[in-house]
Amino acid sequence: MVKDLGGKKSGHSPVLEFAVATLTPANTFHKRINMQILQIINQIGPLPLKGQFKSPMDGPALLVVTGSLWSQSVNTLLTVDVQLDGTSIGTAKIWSNGVATHRAFPTLFLPVNLTYAQHVLTLTPGANVVSDLNDTFTAYLIF
Fold first, then answer.
1. Over the Cα atoms of the chain, what is R_g?
2. Residue 25 and residue 30: Cα distance in Å, rounded?
3. pLDDT tens-digit profile of 70-100?
4. Three-state DSSP state, 107
5. How many helices (H) and strands (E) does the chain have?
6. Is it true that the peptide bond before 48 is cis, omega within 30 degrees of 0?
7. In terms of CB atoms within 10 Å, which end of the chain has fewer, N or C?
8. pLDDT, tens digit, 9 for 90 and up, residues 38-73
9. Which domains does the chain have, with CATH numbers?
10. What whole-number distance in Å separates Cα of residue 32 and Cα of residue 9?
11. How far apart are CA 6 and CA 73, in angstroms?
């Protein structure tokens, strides 16, 4: 906003007024939450891979899956099916236009509701997908 401090014929130059925002630390508004990470899978291919784990809690958690794949065909949708206790809970996907090129699929974040019990996580390749010892897969539970 421009404000003339001198009136109609004061001869004063207009003055620019502005407000300065004050930064407030994030922890002022949010309660600090401590979270833990449980590594379930951290190994090289080929797929399928299985990881057994005992859930450290009852309730919601976040499953994070990463890895890479390749195909012997051009223009192929590379997929990995993620199963928890035999039930599909998500699929990681990435297109590969080139042949025989390892592609890291985008990190997959999957919300899960666990019981305090033993569980099995399985990573299974999709059709026309290859994985080998040059592909590394990880799965972590954040709770």
1. 26
2. 9
3. 999 999 999 999 999 999 999 999 999 999 9
4. strand
5. 0, 10
6. yes
7. N
8. 999 999 999 999 999 999 999 999 999 999 999 999
9. 35-142 (2.60.120.40)
10. 58
11. 77
